[in-house]
Amino acid sequence: MSAKTVNNKAWWLVLPVFVMVAFNALIPLMTVVNYSVQETFGDNIFSWSGVRWFQQVLQSDRFHGALGRQLLFSGLVLLIEIPLGLFVALNMPKKGFWVSVCLVLMSLPLLIPWNVVGSMWNIMALPDIGLLGKAVNSLGITYNYTRQPFAAWCTLILMDVWHWTSLVTLLCYAGLVSIPDAYYQAAKIDGAGSWAIFRYIQLPKLRHVMTIAVLLRFMDSFMIYTEPQVMTGGGPGSSTTFLSIDLVKSAIGEFDLGPAAALSIIYFLIILAISWLFYTLMMRNEEA
Q1: How far, in Å, CA of 257 to CA of 39, rounded?
Q2: pLDDT at residue 285 is higher than 60
Q3: For helices 61-91 and 207-222, what crossing angle results, to 10°?
Q4: Which of 29, 53, 133, 236 could anchor a disulfide with 262, C-beta 3.0 to 4.6 Å?
């Protein structure tokens, strides 16, 4: 048999895209690195500061608090959205007219821009005129997300669950419909119940899809900015000030460019480390 000829000419078509993306990413990154190791006095006058900004950020309680809130938010979001999305996907119809209806309804929250989502929930959660705020207060529960940190957290988590559970649902649903019917027929012959089918057929087949869903949702929730910024602005106080909000406040609000640049690099390295961790887990699942 003749050896298969591999045509690599197609790479020349995508090479300009790679070059452009690398160029657009490299220049801002080098600018941030430059500010992170120097101190600027304006008028393009810089003095070398070394790792002083990194030490200042890593030793500050402000950074530790924002990082803790960011991790807590991502953890709570995952604990709610992953099981809920899987539950909805398991109960969605697999055939017929209602399949299209359910898929469209699930896709609608994902089509709404992030700033619009924050504005919608900001208005809806107002304690005096908002539908959600008015309904909760009518039950005798004191609710004001602009003054109560716990209420602000509950509202943000509820908003994120409403916005992004659909993504988990659609991923899980795609994995479920890709399972061959032969598995279900064999389970039916063996007399397996619904729980046995879920545990030994559906859950193992969804392992890779669930890993991707967890990865996407964790990374997106860890980098969340627009929704909480529009809705709470990081308040009340600093109760919902995540790393992303704290970074923007430091860079734009306080114009403290050195610490802000150091924080952005630390933020990037944390995201990179978590991405590597999830990638390693995904590769282990592929080899299993």
Answers
A1: 8
A2: no
A3: 140
A4: 53
